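Budget justification aside, the reviewers requested a transparent look at the raw inputs and outputs of the sequence design task funded under Objective 1. We therefore reproduce one unedited record. The lines immediately below are the structure tokens for a 201-residue chain.
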């Protein structure tokens, strides 16, 4: 108890929240599946589906709200990379939330991911999907092994490659995520703009 009081007194609020998230995850998980999703909408859909199945207390949902298709991801696992990304977000995006709240949520999410015991199962999910369809997919894939060591290693190598570049835009190309130049979509956007303008005439 004294150690907890010292931690609460001597650490900033974001570190205390991070420690609480880690403690909660370690004590409540007991080897159950942990789902990591990109986007609040997808996360909400999965939470709804788990609740409909009555297993919301048995399977944990962790949501990364950030949009990683844009902005730097260089060295995102280090403070320098996080600071660079946060500066980029401040200078290039208009956020509904305060940047400090966004950073706090991101740090808490990372803490939760880092607290996952190695042997636990953690399916990764991306994209938008309606809850009903998500539940169908969930039922179908439930018994399938989630991620082999080989697949995990491949994803780790892909991440290292992305985290080594200073490019601020990524694209899905040939079934892979690629770092691309800032003007990658310019021709497509211009072409679509011209089509829309000609249809409006």
């Amino acid at each position: 108890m004294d150690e907890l009081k010292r931690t609460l007194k001597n650490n900033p609020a974001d570190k205390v929240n991070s420690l609480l998230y880690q403690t909660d995850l370690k004590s409540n998980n007991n080897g159950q599946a942990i789902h990591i999703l990109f986007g609040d909408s997808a996360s909400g859909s999965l939470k709804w589906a788990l609740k409909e199945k009555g297993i919301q207390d048995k399977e944990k949902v962790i949501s990364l709200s950030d949009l990683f298709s844009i902005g730097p991801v260089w060295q995102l696992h280090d403070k320098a990379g996080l600071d660079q990304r946060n500066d980029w977000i401040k200078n290039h995006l208009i956020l509904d939330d305060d940047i400090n709240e966004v950073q706090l949520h991101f740090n808490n999410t990372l803490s939760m991911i880092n607290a996952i015991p190695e042997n636990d199962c953690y399916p990764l999910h991306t994209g938008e999907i309606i809850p009903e369809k998500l539940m169908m997919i969930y039922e179908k894939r439930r018994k399938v092994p989630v991620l082999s060591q080989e697949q995990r290693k491949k994803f780790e190598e892909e991440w290292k490659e992305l985290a080594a570049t200073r490019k601020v835009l990524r694209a899905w190309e040939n079934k892979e995520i690629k770092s691309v130049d800032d003007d990658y979509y310019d021709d497509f956007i211009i072409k679509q703009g011209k089509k829309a303008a000609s249809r409006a005439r």
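DSSP finds eight helices and five strands in the chain. The radius of gyration is 20 Å. Computational costs for records of this kind are itemized in the attached budget.
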